[in-house]
């Protein structure tokens, strides 16, 4: 069945470092892809999304490109801040919009 | 605009007891979801409603879990009897329409501990 695989965390970075969180997926069709973020003590929030191959989602300095050839949707940010410390979830869905999530990657950014 | 509301935020019960969670979606959102998030895992869909009808409950353990969405607005998720493995955060989400292009908005969750 469909699934999402994320790199294990925690990812520990210094402020202003470059961030990559890997996400790959297995899908029987052509899903939309998402990154959700969960800040400490808060609910899940949509960070960005891409609905078809080669689309790039972006928000708050984060970017991810839908790569059909490598079945990947890696999250990147050029310069992280302490406030970016959170758990990041990669997810996919089809037009029924049930989300299938990865296990999450915790990011810790230190000043 | 008010977000998705859930209550209680925390609940501790003993195994074999029953528990109920409540969710109030964003006004006007037709689709409502309940997810279970076990520690260290991503959320997993339990049940999805479109208005007051069930769209997908394939992963709901129906021998102990039940959910309803009366009048297509608020929803209640119940567990009876609870097991230790039900310890998790239960997330409610809602979206405007039944299409992938519409964002799902999540509530803060209810953290259930079964002892």
Task: Describe it.
- The complex is a heterodimer of chains A (111) and B (115).
- Chain A is an all-beta fold.
- Chain A has strands at residues 3-6, 11-14, 19-21, 23-26, 32-38, 44-50, 56-59, 62-65, 75-77, 86-93, 100-101, 105-110.
- The radius of gyration of chain A is 13 Å and the shape is globular.
- In chain B, strands 2, 4, 5, 6, 9, 10 and 11 form a seven-stranded mixed beta sheet that branches. A four-stranded antiparallel beta sheet of chain B has the order 1-3-8-7, with no helix packed on it.
- Chain B is globular and about 40 Å long.
- Classes of the chains: A mainly beta (111), B mainly beta (115).
- The A-B interface holds A 4, 31-32, 42-46, 49, 51, 89, 91, 93-104 and B 3-4, 31, 33, 35, 40-45, 48, 55-56, 91, 93, 95, 98-104, 106-109.
Which labels suit this protein?
heterodimer, A: 111 residues, four-stranded antiparallel β-sheet, 12 strands, 0% helix, B: 115 residues, mainly beta, seven-stranded mixed β-sheet
């Amino acid at each position: 069945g469909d699934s999402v695989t994320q790199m294990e965390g925690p990812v520990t970075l210094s402020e202003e470092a470059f961030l990559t969180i890997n996400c790959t997926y297995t899908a029987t069709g052509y899903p939309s892809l998402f990154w959700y973020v969960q800040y400490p003590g808060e609910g899940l929030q949509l960070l960005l999304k891409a609905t078809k191959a080669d689309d790039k989602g972006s928000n708050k300095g984060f970017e991810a490109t839908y790569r059909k050839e490598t079945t990947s949707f890696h999250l990147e940010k050029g310069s992280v801040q302490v406030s970016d410390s959170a758990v990041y979830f990669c997810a996919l869905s089809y037009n029924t919009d049930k989300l299938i999530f990865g296990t999450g990657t915790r990011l810790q950014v230190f000043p | 605009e008010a977000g998705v509301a859930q209550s209680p935020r925390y609940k501790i019960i003993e195994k074999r007891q029953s528990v109920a969670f409540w969710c109030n979606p964003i006004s006007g959102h037709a689709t409502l979801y309940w997810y279970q998030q076990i520690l260290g895992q991503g959320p997993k869909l339990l049940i999805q409603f479109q208005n007051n009808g069930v769209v997908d409950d394939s992963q709901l353990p129906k021998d102990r879990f039940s959910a309803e969405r009366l009048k297509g607005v608020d929803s209640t998720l119940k567990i009876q009897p609870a097991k230790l493995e039900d310890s998790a955060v239960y997330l409610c989400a809602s979206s405007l329409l039944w299409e992938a292009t519409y964002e799902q908005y999540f509530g803060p969750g209810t953290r259930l501990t079964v002892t």
